[in-house]
Amino acid sequence: MRRLVLAAAMLGTVSAAQAADMPDLPVLRGGFADGLSKTSVNWNGFYVGGHGGYTADATDFSQSVVGLTNYIFRDSVLQGPTSTWSLLNKTNTQSTNFGGFVGRNWQWYDAVLSLEGTYSYFNDMATLTSGTNSLVIVNPPGEVRAPGVTNNYAVTLTGAAAAQVKDMVTLRGRVGWDGGSFMPYAFMGAAVGRMDVSRTVTSSVSMRQDTTTTDFFGNTTTILGTWGPVPAQSGTQGQHRTNTYAVGWTAGLGLEYCVWDGLFARMEYEYVRFSPVMNTQVTLNNARLGVGYKF
Q1: Sign of CA dihedral 283, 289, 292, 294
Q2: Among 192, 238, 224, 199, which Cα is nearest to 87's?
Q3: Which of 17, 36, 59, 200 sits most deeply, having the most CB atoms within 10 A of its CB?
Q4: CA nearest to 165, candidates 191, 126, 212
């Protein structure tokens, strides 16, 4: 029994000595978990900055003069057929843009939610187009005619339209992810653009009335009439709006990088679609670079 107690005492002494010689590992103090944690940039707070970039403008003029032709042919059997004509084309142009932004970030763990307002000015971003279409409309629907009468309408439309987007403001909601020094984000919101829009159309209408008769023996004879002008459906109409506002929506993707402390750089792509103004619809694709500061 005395030998057993002595052996146990010696073993305890050796174990204590070995424990005293062991290095002081971080895991014993809870420091190991801290070593694996991610160093995060604090994206929370107000921010402000400026941006500049490139814009591709796609303007759809295909229905721009429909309102004018409907007015010219109002109360006429020609209004229905001519309202379906695509007299003008879609056009594209490019320009530079520059402006600023201001917003507020709210951060929960790695998620960053933002509300942001932007302003963009477009440098001479104007598009225009013109076109002519001619067609003979025979016995248009809704017309009342005597038996054997055929009415032929030779209609020629010549039109032109132009649109210039001057500037734009947006209010966007953003959803971002805290990736350390990087924050990728997506956004969507409302847009209001200021633009000049004009359109004009000239119509020229002539009519020829043909008469078909059948005699007692069943022989059919068609007498062709002569072309004559129709002043009531011939004329010119135009419309111009300066500094008119168009509402729309915007969406896109971006990436921000924390350069130092509150200073950050960003790059983004933005798609904007405005509601039609005088049947003219404008769509923008913006690519931007920006610099800002978060307070």
Answers
A1: positive
A2: 199
A3: 59
A4: 126
* Total residue length of the chain: 295
SS3 31: helix
Got the DSSP string for 126-195?
A: EEEEEEEEEEEEES-TT----TTEEEEEEEEEEEEEEEEEEEEEEEEEEEEE-BTTEEEEEEEEEEEEEE
The model's pTM:
0.79
Q: Give residue-wise pLDDT tens across range 171-223.
A: 999 999 999 899 999 999 999 999 999 999 999 999 999 998 887 877 888 88
Q: Please give the Cα distance from 284 to 181 (Å, whole number).
A: 30
Dist. CA 185–CA 40, nearest whole Å = 16
> What's the sign of the alpha-carbon dihedral 239, 245, 249, 254?
positive
Q: What is the largest CA-CA distance in the chain?
A: 150
